[in-house]
Write the structure tokens for this entry.
Amino acid sequence: MKKFSILICCVVLAFAACRKENSISNDPSHKLAFSTDTILFDTVFTTLGSSTHHLKIYNPYPDNLNISEIRLMGGEASRFKINFDGEIGTEFHDKVVPANDSIYTFMNVTIDPDDRTTPFVVEDSILFVTNGNTQMVKLVAWGQNARYIVADRMINGFPPFKIVADSLETTHWTNELPYVVYGYALINSYGTLHIHEGTHIYVHSGGGLWSWSDGQLIIDGTAENPVIIEGDRLEPFFKDQPGQWDRIWIMDGRPGADNIINHAIIRNGFIGIQAESFLKGTQSALRINNTVIENHMGWGILARAFAIEANNMVIDNCKHYAFEVQLGGDYLVRHSTIGNYWWQDGRSTASLFFSNSAEQDGELYEFPFHFEMGNSIVYGALTEEFGTKFSAKEVDTTYLFDHCLLKTEVYSNDDPGFSSCLFNQDPMFVNYRTFDMHLSDALSPAVGSGSPLIATQVPFDIDGKSRTGTPDLGAYQY
């Protein structure tokens, strides 16, 4: 019996060894299957290269399949590159796909710059030959030339930067080509950067726009052609990923040189706008009109001892404060919408927060503070979306909410600083998950609840719709 068992084992092992040696199929009806027939690369900036895409190659049969040839049809001249099983090249031979299994191949693309100002298509294909069968997978990439702003200076304690508007110089960024910013694009003292309508600015991780003390930033978009500032990762996965770049950083300004942001979309950064009197008290203001600041990992606006006037401003989906004021300042906000439903992970900070003091080395420093908000909405997912931290000492501090919809259980119209406000009533936004903060229904409490007097100062909403008849609250007229 023992000898018989040993004999059986030998036969089984011999059969298995024979099966393994002869397991590659030669059946011409056996073809590969692919995860897709077209690999699509979204817009790729020239010279920078793309992210890596992959193709999954399936063998649905009980025998191994030998791919006798894999070839990039464009050859060495192709703008695409293939990485197959750790090898980079344009042609491979005799690659085996195990029975009922799959393997991966990876590819990316680098597009050379030319003189075209509009996006263009770059195409190639990969040929697979298996058992005499020829199969093709297409490669398609949209190419885009761009102007590159690459940091070339470093000062200890500051992020790397490149001066794009030097002292007494006005630099114009126009919409013929997008701008790709690595590091910070810096406006030097007494310099001006004027960004024109339709300009698209892509900022790499850790970078941003920086208006140094006495510099001036002018963003001059229109309703039809807003200026867009966002991260430089263009794959679909990154479309709504916050924290892809750092911030727009505005420091104290010189008299008569207000920083201006008209019709802009500022999204997917760490801080949308940081405005602070860093070296001296600011002698100018930041004026924001018809602008959306959305989906930031930290703040929508972080202001310190600054002067800001905002009309038709939308701030939504920020992990920290949507709008935080530190160290006082002077603020006027009309017909604006703050809707903070940050859903990516937890949020514990109110959408709107004020402070008029700071403590350093045990010493309390106080600053004058004035804030006025009219015909606006402050709402979100938390029970309390409004917070303050005011010094108990005597300091010039005033705030007024006039005809606003607020989410707070601490304040009411009986408290000083609140007049004709609505509290804790859902404004009924269209869809905060897609960052659409329009009012969705005529039954919204915000509809028709605005002050006509305030509306005359901002007679059109962010979409250009008249609101002077019966004004709604917020940046959008229903």
Remarks:
- Residues 146-455 form one domain.
- Confidence is low (pLDDT under 50) at residues 1-19.
- The longest strand covers residues 299-318.
- The chain has two domains: 33-143, 146-455.
